């Protein structure tokens, strides 16, 4: 990984000696190379094997370091329940460079306090497609069993858990 691998802003970050500053912060858009830059530098510090061209901070003894990573580039992710918006947003950001895909499977139950279901229905982007599995297709669950289940749930749960509808949609369509 030579100096031509890095963008000018990455090189400025890498080659800045810390001097009187104990904190350097590298920021940029998703998948812009922040993790690659900082990961390369940390690997040099951990191994003590610095590139000849590197003029930044150097350690001449073994070091102890921590790294918190959330930045992998993904091709696809699957959430098998409704994710919190901040998690879903972070996962979407992991798809930026790959043009990746997401799959979410969940029963739309609850108060939707985080707005995830509302966003899917009311604010859906042209990049999203929403599918429903209606009770009429679930041949492995008998009508008798569905009726038994319906007696155990409140109105919202019957609409979603038994019939597979979004509750606010089933409520608005009845009125």
Describe this structure in words.
With 175 residues, the protein is mainly alpha-helical. It has seven helices and two strands, in the order ααβαβαααα. The protein has a two-stranded parallel sheet with strand order 1-2. Mean pLDDT is 82; it is low at 168-175. It is elongated and about 75 Å long. It folds into two domains: 1-71, no CATH class; 76-174, no CATH class. Strand 1, helix 3 (85-93) and strand 2 (101-104) form a beta-alpha-beta unit. Helix 5 runs antiparallel to helix 6 (155-162).
Quick summary:
With 175 residues, the protein is mainly alpha-helical.
Based on the model shown, name its key terms.
disordered C terminus; 175 residues; two-stranded parallel sheet; 7 helices; single chain; 2 domains; mainly alpha
Secondary-structure map with pairings?
Layout: H1 8-14, H2 34-47, E1 76-79, H3 85-93, E2 101-104, H4 116-122, H5 143-152, H6 155-162, H7 167-174
Parallel strand pairs: 1-2
Helix pairs in contact: 5-6, 6-7
- Largest beta sheet: strand ordering: 1-2
Strand content: under 5%
Principal-axis shape equals elongated
Distance separating the two termini: 63 Å
Unreliable parts: 168-175
Pairing-aware structural class of the strands and helices? mainly alpha
What Rg do the Cα atoms give? Answer: 25 Å
Tally of distinct domains: 2
Number of E-type strands = 2
SSE pattern: HHEHEHHHH
Helical segment tally?
Answer: 7
